[in-house]
Amino acid sequence: AYFHGNSNWNEFYDWHGPDNDITLHVFRLDSPMKGKESSKDERKLSFQVATIDMVKGELTVRECLWNTAPNTLAWGAHKTISIRVTPRT
Description:
- By secondary structure, the chain is an all-beta fold.
- The protein is built from no helices and 6 strands.
- The protein has strands at residues 2-5, 11-15, 24-29, 46-53, 58-66, 73-82.
- A 3-stranded mixed sheet has the order 1-3-2, with no helix packed on it. A 3-stranded antiparallel sheet has the order 4-5-6, with no helix packed on it.
- Strand 2 (11-15) and strand 3 form a beta hairpin.
- The relative contact order is 0.20.
């Protein structure tokens, strides 16, 4: 998994590389100062909360919307990926 952000927004996608031969799960996140949407309206600011389930071998990333209304948090989009390592044969 790859996390990045700067002048961005919340987004989950898979990057398949220049030769389309890999899958890298990408989690793009917002910036409180340079966010495409939130720099103009802080009610659109979001963060990502990542949790790992060691038993299932899964990583779940959830969007947390901050300040949508005074003193509130709300959950937005989420994505779960497998983080189990499978041996090559």
